[in-house]
Structures are given as structure tokens and as C-alpha cells.
Amino acid sequence: MSELAHPAWPLLAGAAVAAVAPLPVRRLVALLAPLVALVLAWRLPDGAAVGGALMGLPLIALRADALARVFAIVFALAAGLGALYGLEPARQRLLAAGLAAAAAAEGIVLAGDWVTLYLAWETLAVASFVLVTDGRTARAWRSALGYLLVHALGGALLLAGVVWHLASGGDPRIGPLALDGPGWLVLLAFAVNAAVPPLHAWLTDAYPESSPAGTVLLSAFATKAAVYALLRVFAGQEVLVWAGTAMALYGVVYAVLATDIRRLLAYHIVSQVGYMVAGAGIGTALAVNGAAAHAFCHIIYKALLLMGAGAVVHATGRGRLPDLGGLAPHMPATLALYMVGALSISGAPLLNGFVSKSLVLAAAEATHRDTAYWLLTLASVGTFLSTGLKLPWFTFGGAPAARPAAALPRPMLAAMTLAAALCLLLGVAPGLLYALLPFPVAYAPYTAGHVLESLQILAGTTLAFLLLKETLHGAASRTLDVDVLYRAAGRLLRDGLAPALARVADAAEALSYALVARQLPAPDFRLGVPIGYAVLITLLTLGLTLLAW
Amino acid sequence: MNRRVLTAVATVALVAVEVVAAPGHVPGLGALAGLAGGFALVGIAKALGKAGLQRPEPPDE
């Protein structure tokens, strides 16, 4: 096989086979495709390029370097872990959409030109939309359509920015952009996918509504592909330091309030991606290494955490903290493996989060950004408080409130064990991770001061939790987020544009039923209305772009 | 032993080890960050919840 074969190809082929093949073939392909993609990503040499041309524009489908390779490797790894976790019952929709999303994410990080990036960006949005619908509830459908709507807006912003950039004579190959007109549009599009507040609610709304395996797969791709894009295009933009720091804190505050275990973990995706965005903003070699390393480790430990939460949902049919409790004697392996993920995300020594998060913090310290350093450290406290203490305490500890009704399938436990082993391996041998990073690493994470400080943070946070835990255990609740504001704005807009929207929605509804609904169970409401919004937003943005041109 | 007391003792022990093993570090800064940070975050979150951000979960469908 050529060493320039694109890692997306086996994933796309796997998605196509998984969509139609019988169960045994589906299972085999779901494991083989990510494995082949992993080998291809690992073997990509620096400077490799494969492409052609379209209407005078170069199309570079594959452009490899160390930064792209580290993301390509971890996306293949995430696809494999997610597929293994979802191997029982191995639904066609889950595996096909999961592999397609992984292929699209590979397409983004290996794209060498703006047009290829845009095409892969939109493919990822559509595949992720289908993954959200794997929750197979009316709420999952609504969240999926919200996801599609927000990402249609993000995609339209990206398209507008790219067209503007190319029309003003910009380089068709992907590279750093200045924060001028097209630059801001592209940055906003990246911010939508990175879930930068106030553009983040699609994530915390949609991810918890998918199936357990769907949530694991979703958690890997969209936000981390956006982190890659920020590192590639906007490294060193100061605005990202503060956006990232705000994200890190925003996520942990909302996670303290969350009572749904998968929504709590979704808020921690926002928070952890904040470290990566801040790293992109700092922009030094250490910070870029830190952001890339943290994305790599985050994909693994977050998958493990969501696998643990998904295992609880699978076994008990419940996902809200007030309905859970006392599961430790029934699910000891799940608790132990979940805690590996929880300690990893909290930056405990010997685990992968310790060796990646500290790169970003060291970069903030080295560039004398003391405020950002302390606020990111505060976010670490909140991370352990919610994921390492609150969630396991009220789920696995305390009085029994739920007994597992279903045993965990072996593939679920195997995927969790593999993810936990990777967390430990990278934590014990950080050189394995550092060797993959774009710049040489001279940083030593295991100093007495750093280890002791980290242990003290964990101990101090535990003490705070033990003193406050009664106040953290309340009735099931949902926290209002910024999406209430743009939902209200959307309602006003809808009322103003009702006649035009109705016509677009009717046309889109006919089309969507013809193309999509025949393949998927019909939701209990009109599918075409949100898709109509998506079409309208895209058309409006395209119109504005053409006017600007 | 009470969990809170045990954790407090462990925290103080970690600070004591830091004094010996990591000279130049401000002793106890990590423990203070954990304790004060935990209280601050819970306080902020609870205040936001009471201000109306937290609503009853809609029933399952």
C-alpha cells in the first residue's frame, strides 16, 4: 500500500460497508477500518502531498506534517475505541456515521487547501448530525436538528470567509490568516465548532442525547478538528487566550450545576477545549505542543469518561444523579475504569492529563500570563470537583437508588480497558506522546514541585467537596444556558420571516423526506422546518458573500 | 477515621513534604488553590442557580 494513502479512505469505505453489510461483516469492518487508518496516519511522512485542481484552484486532499499527523493518529484511535465500544449491538447508523465522521475529521486535518477543508468540514457536520440521531428519541432528533442548524451557520461562515479570502487574492493553501474581514469570518466558523461560548450550546444540548456509543464518537471529532484549525490558522492570536480561559471556567461552573451525568461531562468538553484554545492563543512552540498534546490525551480520557457514564446509562437506564447511587458493588470495573479517566482529566500524576495539561499551563507561565495561568488552574479544581468527586460519589457511592438491569457487553468493557491503559501508558511514559508533537519538547513534567502541587490541588479540592457535598446533591434540573437568548432571537426572526420560511421549509421538507427520512425512523414533528432554516441561513450567507465579492 | 479529617491530614502532609522536597515553591499553594477554588466554584454555581439559571428537568418522553 502506498505510504501516501489517505487515512480517510479506509474509514469512508468502512462507513459505506457498515451502512449495508450484515452484522458479522459490520463488526469486522468497524474494527479493521480504524486500524488501517491508524497505520496510514502513523506512516505519513512530513511534506507528503496529494492533490489536483478545480476551476484553477489547487485541491490538496493530503498535506502531512507533524501537527496534522498527531491529530490524524488520535482521530483513527478514537474511531477504533468508539467502534469497539459500540460493537454490541453494532447498529448500522452508529457505525456508518461514526466512521464517516472520523473520515471527515481526517479530511480536515490533512487538507492542504481551503476548498478541501470546507468540504470535509460540512461532511463532519452531516455525519455528526446522524450520530446524534442514534439516541433514537424525539429529544435526540430535536437536538440533532439544532446541531445541524448551528453547524449550517458555522459552515456558511467558513464558506463566506474562504470565498472572500480567495476573491481578494489570498493563498488557496491553508495557512495563517490575519484578523481582517475574511479572517474574522473563518475564526467565527472555527469558534462554532470549537464550542467557544456563547456558540457552544449545540454541544451540551446534543451530545448527551445520542446513544452511549454515539456520544463517545461525537466527543472526539468536531471540537478537536476546530482546535487543529485554530492552531494551523490563528496560532498566537491573543483573543484566543482569553476565549480559551473563559471556556475553561464556563464549562466547570455549569458542570457543577449539571445533574445529567453525560451533560456534566459535555460541559467538561467545553472546559478542556478551553485549555487547547488558550494554548493556540499563546502560540509559542511549547503552547502549540501543549494544545496538540492535550487534544490527543483529551480525546482518550474523555472517551473513557463518556464510556463509563454510558455504561451506567446502559445498565440502569438512568442518567440523572438524583436517580442514581450505590452502584459501586454492582459495577466495580466500571467505577475503577471511570476513575482512571476522572483522574486523568483532573491532571493526576502518572496519567495522561498530567503530562499534557501542564504543557499549556507552563506555556502560560513562561509567557508571564499569570492571570490566565491561575484561572486555568482554578478550572482544574472544578474539573476534579465535578468529574472526579461529584459524579462518582453520587453515582457509585451512597445509598442504592438503582440496580443494573443489564450486564455490560464485553466490547464495552474492552474499550474502556483499552482507553484506561492508554491514559496510564502516556502518563507513565510521556516521551511516547512528546515524540509525536510538532516541536521538540524540552519540558519535564515530573518534578517534585509539580507533582506535589498537583497532589495538593486534588487533596484540597477533595476537602472542599467533603465539606460542601450536601449542597451539590439536588433534584434533577436543567440549567439555562445562552442558547435561550438565541432561541428567543430565532423565534423573533421566524415570526418576521414566516412566509419566506414556510416556502423554503416546504421545499426542504419534501427533499429531506425523500433523501433522509426514508432511511431513518420518522420523528414526531416536521423534519423540514429546521432543515429549511439551515437552507435559508446558507442561502442568505452565500448571497451576502456574493455581494461582498 | 472521619473522611474529612483524613483528607485534611493528607493535605497537610503533602504541604510538609513540599517544604522539604521542593525548596523555592510556595508551600501549600496547591492545597489552598484546591480548597479555596472548590468553595469559590461551588459558591458561584449555586448563586447562578439561585438567580434562576437552574430549572426543573422536563419529564422524560
Question: In summary, what is this structure?
Answer:
The complex is a heterodimer of chains A (549) and B (61). With 549 residues, chain A is mainly alpha-helical. Chain A is 73% helix and 3% strand.
Rg of chain B, alpha carbons:
18 Å
Q: How many beta strands in the DSSP annotation of chain A?
A: 3
- Head-to-tail CA distance between termini of chain A: 44 Å
**What is the number of helical segments of chain B per DSSP (H or I, 4+ residues)?**
2
What's the story with the biggest beta sheet of chain B? Answer: none
The counted number of beta strands of chain B is: 1
The helix fraction of chain A, in percent, is: over 70%
How large a portion of the residues of chain A is in β-strands, by DSSP E?
under 5%
In sequence order, what are the helices and strands of chain A, one letter per element? HHEEHHHHHHHHHHHHHHHHEHHH
Q: Poorly predicted ranges of chain A (pLDDT <50, ≥5 residues)?
A: none
Strand content of chain B: under 5%
Backbone shape of chain B: elongated
Structural write-up:
The complex is a heterodimer of chains A (549) and B (61). Among the domains of chain A are: 235-481, no CATH class; 483-515 and 525-548, no CATH class. Helices cover 73% and strands 3% of the residues of chain A. Chain A is built from 21 helices and three strands. A two-stranded antiparallel sheet of chain A has the order 1-2. The longest helix of chain A has 32 residues, at 285-316. Chain A is globular, with a radius of gyration of 22 Å. The model of chain A has no long low-confidence stretch (mean pLDDT 90). Chain B has helices at residues 3-21, 29-53, and one strand at residues 54-56. Chain B is mostly helical and 61 residues long. Chain B is 72% helix and 5% strand. Chain B starts with a helix and ends in a 5-residue tail after the last strand. The interface between A and B is large, with 46 and 42 residues. Strand 3 (477-479) of chain A pairs antiparallel with strand 1 of chain B.
